[in-house]
Amino acid sequence: MKYVFLLAAVAVIYFVWSRQTPVAPVAEAVTQKEVAPLTTGGRDVPPPTSNFLKRPLDRTHAVLDQAKKRNGAGEF
Fold this sequence. Notes:
Elements: H1 2-19, H2 23-31, H3 55-71
């Protein structure tokens, strides 16, 4: 019986606490329109390589180079 009471008390505390969370401001902040688009222009396609094992590494290096160019001041 004490386990049932404990479970009911935890459930009541959970529901009371969940009702006090600020859901509306968070939902509004999430759905706001972005100030600037995250991407500009098309993707830079890495030059094709003949080795299929090296292609993922080339793409990784291309993405890292793109991030370095976008970083500018070095705060990455």
